[in-house]
Amino acid sequence: MFKSTLKRKETVEMLLKEHYEPGRQDRCKRWVYLHYVYPLTKISERTFYRYLGEYEKRLMAEPPPQAVQLSLF
User: Fold this and answer.
1) Is the pLDDT of residue 18 over 90?
2) What gap in Å lies between CA 69 and CA 46, rounded to an integer?
3) For a Cys-Cys bond, which of 16, 27, 47, 51 suits 21, CB 3.0-4.6 Å?
4) What span, in angstroms and rounded, lies between the C-alpha atoms of 53 and 16?
């Protein structure tokens, strides 16, 4: 994969982390795309959602942090 594509994916992920608010209808992923991602990267909405799909798969593949079992003895 090209370095420019990887950098663009990182930019999209960063912008989404900064501006997306899951509980708010007015700060949905499409709003982030229209107001931040598209003006900066000029990628299509389809490409934006493809990058998000890859990002979410990567998040799901990471193992959750192990909970430490405390002992009384």
Assistant:
1) yes
2) 44
3) 27
4) 13
